[in-house]
Amino acid sequence: MEQKPAGGRIQAIRGTRDILPPESSKWLWLEQKCRDVLSRFGYSEIRTPIFEYTELFNKGTGETTEIVQKQMYTFLDRGGRSITLRPEGTPSVARALIEHGLLRRSKVTKLYYFGPMFRHDRPQAGRYRQFDQLGAELIGAAGPEADAESVHLHVALLRALGLREFAVKVNSVGCPDCRPAYSSLIRDTLRDKASELCEDCTERLEKNPLRILDCKVESCRRIAASVPLISGSLCSDCREHYEGLKVLLKSIEVEFEEDPGLVRGLDYYTKAAFEIHHGRLGAQSALGGGGRYDNLIALYGGEPTPAVGFAAGLDRILLAVEEEGVKIPLDVGVDAYVVAISDAARAKCFSIASWLRQDLRVEVDLARRSLQSQMKAAGAAGARFAVIVGEDEMKSGVLTVRDMTSGGQEKVPEVDVSGYLKRLLGK
Ligand code: HAM
What we know:
By secondary structure, the chain is an alpha+beta fold. 37% of the residues lie in helices and 21% in strands. Helix 1 (23-40) runs antiparallel to helix 6 and helix 6 runs parallel beside helix 10. The radius of gyration is 28 Å and the shape is elongated. The protein binds histidyl-adenosine monophosphate (HAM).
């Protein structure tokens, strides 16, 4: 049982983080870059609530998954209903599509979302209890073109962020027609070795044998190596779809490797599944993952509708950006700092700053600091210019503008200051 810190200071909950400036600017940069790519691929944004009835995830994400069994933040609300903080976004999107009749409106719908997800797992580097995902769901297309576009979108997002050292892994996890036979094959192959499996895999052997294939425990990995590959058990529909995906990915020069052990940790997948891993992130190397989920919408009572999508972990993507040394153009400095030479000029500085802010990023001293401290503050704020105001300036209506980089000064009539600064800043 984890302990709350005894008395005194209240701290952030383990596995959650505060994102402070200037780190927060990196998130803004990341989000803007991603939105740009998403719009080029024809996606529109959907915003769904961060909590849903628990039933939604039990049914969709799946009763046998670790997420549902061990990781959900579930509680009773004041009305006694079981509510869960979303551990992922796909079930909410499927629910919303049905609830708002979006499936009827057009054949193919492309939706993306950004937002926090919640999973109660053991925190470690790259694994948090609250983390942010970008999800992209493509609904209404059954052919491998949709899967290929989805993989391509994920790759395009990473490339747009300047990442290079990632690897795309693909597999087919079969469908309800062919997977049961493969599950039986796994059970038959491993039955004699059941006693050597870890506790989780012993349970998986009955409930969800495919998950044994991606168990991280060394002894399970050794045992799993004796299981025949799923490719030999796929039905012709799944095989054709998977082959089609591979041909399409090659045609658009998206490099990938086939990974027969890639089974994904959620129950709704059918046919193709994929993950993107980064070589420098250690144990939590998956930047994102997804696949096809042709039965989820019908499972929720909607018109049977094919769908494919993925979610990328934004916290991990930023770690990868750091690891690869991508330069993020942080635009955090202010354009100008209005500096008062004397107390008498403070009110004037306050009003100059207010109107300059119609077009420019401007700071003014609010702490009644000395002239020297104000100049220091201007430097610390990354100001390109200092607009200096004293008795003389107030009398003459001509202000002193100092270029903080060169140290050069100009006298500029008050009415022209905004235009003067904009011209020099190229705005
Ligand atoms: P997922 O593989 O569970 O898929 O999560 C996608 C990504 O979220 C992971 O690859 C990882 O980058 C990030 N992630 C997951 N858990 C954590 C954590 N505890 N801390 C930090 N990052 C994490 C899904 O969520 C599916 N909804 C994807 C999908 C969409 N499939 C179809 N459509």
